[in-house]
Amino acid sequence: MLAMVCKTLDSVKAMESYDKEGLVNKYAGIHRLGTSIRRTIDGRFLVICLEYLSPYVGDCINDDPQKMPDIPKPRSPNGGIPHGFIDDAVNMINIDRENLFNVTRDGYGLRETLFYDLFSHVQVYQTREDMIQAVPWIRNGALSLDGGMIMNKGVYALGDV
């Protein structure tokens, strides 16, 4: 899946223009770039606008240089963390310093906007078996290091990776 990321709505608007019939102008915006390198951009593609994503506004882990969100860990009824739980996916991404702060006009960085939107409560486990055992405590989805995937509560991705 191809997706472009823009900071502002103005940037999104500059990506594409249309003729009088409402058809995409292949000689403007991102399509002009494609034409200049003798490649066409056909079909739909996603453009994510950071300015309009709902950012993470909670606390961050104290003194964390990566500004990791302090997302509560899953807990079983006895208070323990499920076996094999590693972390939330949003906290497993290492972001270079220039993209941690002030990427948007409101001062949010990529972790609070783009990556929180994509991976907010996706949990990561060591194995599929660990992940399946933790199903009661999985909120929005999970991945395992051996290729397991739960898309969201009740939706499982099966088959070969």
Structural class: alpha/beta
CATH architecture heading of the largest domain: 2-Layer Sandwich
Order of helices and strands: EHHEEHEHEEE
- CATH overall fold name of the largest domain: Alpha-Beta Plaits
Mean pLDDT: 91
Apparent shape = globular
Number of domains as seen in the coordinates: 2
The biggest sheet, with number of strands, parallel, antiparallel or mixed sense and barrel status, is: 5 strands, mixed
Number of helices: 4
Major sheet: arrangement of strands:
3-4-5-6-7
* First-residue to last-residue Cα separation: 16 Å
Helix content percent band: 10-25%
Low-confidence parts: none
- Backbone CA Rg: 20 Å
Strand fraction equals 15-25%
Total strand segments? 7
What is the CATH class of the largest domain? Alpha Beta
